[in-house]
Amino acid sequence: MSLREQTTLYASDATTEEQREAFLSGDIPVAVYGLGKMGLPLAAVYAETCGNVVGADIDPDVVSAVNRGDCHVQREPGLDELVSETVAAGALSAVESPTEAARDATIHVAIVPTPITDDDEPDLAILQSVMESIAAGLTPGDLVVVECTVPPGTTRDLLLPMLEAESDLSREEFGVAVCPERTSSGRALQDIRGAYPKVVGGVDEESTRVAELVYGELTDNEVIAVPNETTAEAVKVFEGVYRDVNIALANELAKIADAADISVNEAIETANTQPFCDIHKPGPGVGGHCIPYYPYFLIRQFDEEFSLLTTAREVNDSMPAFTVEKVAELLSEEEKSVSDSRVLVLGLTYRPGVEETRAAPARPICADLTERGADVFAADPVLPNADGFDATKLPLEALADYDFDAAVLVTDHDEFAGIDWAGFDPMVVVDGRNSLDLSWTDHRVYTIGGD
Ligand SMILES: NC(=O)c1ccc[n+]([C@@H]2O[C@H](COP(=O)([O-])OP(=O)(O)OC[C@H]3O[C@@H](n4cnc5c(N)ncnc54)[C@H](O)[C@@H]3O)[C@@H](O)[C@H]2O)c1
Ligand SMILES: CC(=O)N[C@@H]1[C@@H](OP(=O)(O)OP(=O)(O)OC[C@H]2O[C@@H](n3ccc(=O)[nH]c3=O)[C@H](O)[C@@H]2O)O[C@H](CO)[C@@H](O)[C@@H]1O
């Protein structure tokens, strides 16, 4: 019998124990579609678990790097070594063609981008193209896993019908489960291996059973089986919108604290001593590839309007302008104007230590300051340049050679702790992250929401 006839999962006549043994011994081939910030760590953990993974990525540089045992995803502790080890052991390899990867796989794991369009509509085109490739290679007993973050209802209404229509299988011959990745950049391996419970939701009980079996071997944490695929999709998106709304609350409270002339951070820290209170932190904006986008997986997904999610997005998107307005106000109180000022923006990435600038609040902040006529400089220890930002990038060690009229802390990278603030002539400072203590200097400091 061929390898593929021996080891299937969905509706297989093998016992669960036999299937588990086959999976762990590498007799059940896995394909992971998308080897990016989330996909490569996931493929590597699959490979260390089952020893038989082919990654598919349309970027030839990604494929050649992986096949050399190199890790193109930066700043992920342990990932360099794991990619190198699993490739050297023959447990992980990569191809450019998703269709080629689908041909031999029994478990198909999709973790490709699911961005939103300029009109804030979910864009599932990449995921659909991967589903077409999987459909072409789908065989009886296979399991399709959707790890991507998608609008609730996507698998039920779009992906499953695609797989049925474009494969030559009947609905009873293959499984589909939504197992959303709950991974944060910078801690991917620990998250995938079990920082949080793994959520799985199948299109039927057999799909859920198989997903539980597979992820029970990948994670050290528990596997939570939810009633269906749409619930699993919703869990992931709900986690994200909870955060966006909560940050918006903190930002609105910051504006209220300004009006009340109190420190919002003191008030929030004290309010959060109540176990039922978990107000997040105000800041100059909300960036990244997740939190600013997930609300649009709900806002536009159903017929009725959802005002809270929309309003939260508006509040968070107002924070860059709020921050620049504060810079202008403080300069004006020092009888300076933004148009004649040299302003230093500290931190361009969306959060500390992560080389990612999608939706980064520093981008509109630099643009607004430039629009107002300021001479804008930027420092960011994890970015090689300030491409895409209206700012001149300075290395940290060069800051002492300049004097600025204002500084704005947008993202509090650890490396900023070494800045010699006493070396600058007195200037205004807007601390967007409540992370500076400059009370010992002559600088005029405003912390968002009051210090
Ligand atoms: N990055 C995060 O922190 C994060 C957090 C939560 C959820 N997610 C979700 O994870 C998924 C993947 O995101 P990511 O951050 O890894 O994206 P990424 O941009 O880092 O990587 C995506 C990879 O997919 C490849 N790709 C694009 N089209 C492809 C195709 N048709 N076939 C195969 N490969 C293709 C790209 O070349 C790239 O290497 C998304 O659904 C995202 O919403 C990401
Ligand atoms: C698996 C997954 O999806 N994980 C997500 C991922 O999210 P992420 O990588 O997008 O990072 P976030 O920390 O959410 O930040 C987003 C933006 O919001 C700003 N922000 C944040 C908190 C706050 O109180 N006030 C703020 O203003 C911040 O500066 C930044 O610009 O990891 C988080 C754990 O780190 C998770 O919780 C989150 O589900």
From TrEMBL:
Pfam families: UDPG_MGDP_dh, UDPG_MGDP_dh_C, UDPG_MGDP_dh_N. It catalyses: UDP-N-acetyl-alpha-D-mannosamine + 2 NAD(+) + H2O = UDP-N-acetyl-alpha-D-mannosaminouronate + 2 NADH + 3 H(+). Gene3D superfamilies: NAD(P)-binding Rossmann-like Domain (3.40.50.720). InterPro entries: 6-PGluconate_DH-like_C_sf, NAD(P)-bd_dom_sf, UDP-Glc/GDP-Man, UDP-Glc/GDP-Man_DH_C, UDP-Glc/GDP-Man_DH_C_sf, UDP-Glc/GDP-Man_DH_dimer, UDP-Glc/GDP-Man_DH_N, UDP_ManNAc/GlcNAc_DH. GO terms for biological process: polysaccharide biosynthetic process. This is UDP-N-acetyl-D-mannosamine dehydrogenase. PANTHER family: UDP-N-ACETYL-D-MANNOSAMINE DEHYDROGENASE (PTHR43491:SF2). GO terms for molecular function: NAD binding; oxidoreductase activity, acting on the CH-CH group of donors, NAD or NADP as acceptor; UDP-N-acetyl-D-mannosamine dehydrogenase activity. It comes from Haladaptatus paucihalophilus DX253. Belongs to the UDP-glucose/GDP-mannose dehydrogenase family. Residues 344-438 form the UDP-glucose/GDP-mannose dehydrogenase C-terminal domain. Keywords: NAD, Oxidoreductase. It is an enzyme of class 1 (oxidoreductase). Its EC number is 1.1.1.336. SMART domains: UDPG_MGDP_dh_C.
